Amino acid sequence: MKKLAFLFFCSTFASANASIHGGLFDTVPHTHKISFAISLLEEREVFPLQNPLLRGLGNGLGDYLYRRQAHAHLGMFKLGFYLRGKWGLEFGSDIDSIPLDPSFMKNYIASHYPDFFQPGGKLQHAYRLSGGFMRSCYRFRLHYFDIVPKAGIGLLKIGADSLEVSLKQNGSNQFVNYEVQPEAMHSTLAFDLALSFEKKIGRLYGQQMLLALSGSYTVCRPQLYFSVTESRYSGTSTSEFLVKDRLDSYSAMLSLVFRMDTW
């Protein structure tokens, strides 16, 4: 069954109250042509989807990249511009880390090197994402809420942590050094569909404050290069992989929005 493209992204933007007159939240009609909104204090829960095709990668790389974990994330600053309170554009940037479950890598090492134990090294690792985005928005009123559907495109830099593990053979001084090394972060496009429900909760310095509950579905198709190196007493072997991954995710977010009328 195809994923619902309408499960939402946590974006938060409201719109400036330009074309809604005498609504439930505003006793004074607004006729401003241009307004903007600032989104702050965004608490987001991210639920990445798994890519089962990764399990087929050799040399432990599939176990290294598999099983993304849900995580909390504090969203960054976003700014939106609206024309007569309805049509708008929002811009922002974001930095996130998607933690990967290390248990799969531990199981691979235990099965692939049964006569060795691990005296040192790190198994905690994650995908790293950073970049900016732009979304088109449309706002309308439904009962007590402002509803804002959005569609966006972003440019992300995506990379992954390296992995270095030293293994010692039981009963001897023989070591194996196992290393997974990604290349520099790769830039790729991301697309999302979002829906935001916003409700006015008060005013601060004459500007509207709103609480926004949002959700989204994000699609991203990065290509990353990895090298896997195994160094032991008998020599060194290196394998290189091009990974065509799918970093799709659902998100839910609660945020605080300030609307400001400018002209």
Describe the structure in your own words.
The chain is mainly beta and 263 residues long. The protein has 2 helices and 15 strands. The protein has an 8-stranded antiparallel beta barrel. A 5-stranded antiparallel beta sheet has the order 5-9-10-13-14, with no helix packed on it. The radius of gyration is 24 Å and the shape is elongated. The N and C termini lie far apart (47 Å).
Q: What is this structure's SSE topology?
A:
Layout (H helix, E strand, L loop, with lengths): L33 E15 L12 H5 L5 E5 L2 E6 L3 E14 L2 H10 L3 E6 L3 E14 L1 E3 L2 E16 L2 E7 L5 E8 L3 E19 L2 E14 L2 E10 L2 E10 L4 E13 L2
Task: State the main characteristics.
single chain, mainly beta, eight-stranded antiparallel barrel, five-stranded antiparallel β-sheet, 61% strand
Q: Strand content of the residues, in percent?
A: over 45%
Helix content: under 10%
Order of neighbouring strands in the sheet with most strands: 1-3-4-6-8-11-12-15
Q: How many beta-strand runs?
A: 15
Mean of pLDDT: 78
Number of continuous helical runs: 2
Structural class: mainly beta
The outline comes out as elongated
User: Distance N terminus to C terminus?
Assistant: 47 Å
Low-confidence stretches: 1-31
Secondary-structure element pattern, one letter each: EHEEEHEEEEEEEEEEE
Q: Biggest sheet, open or closed, and with what strands and sense?
A: 8 strands, antiparallel, barrel
* Integer-rounded radius of gyration: 24 Å
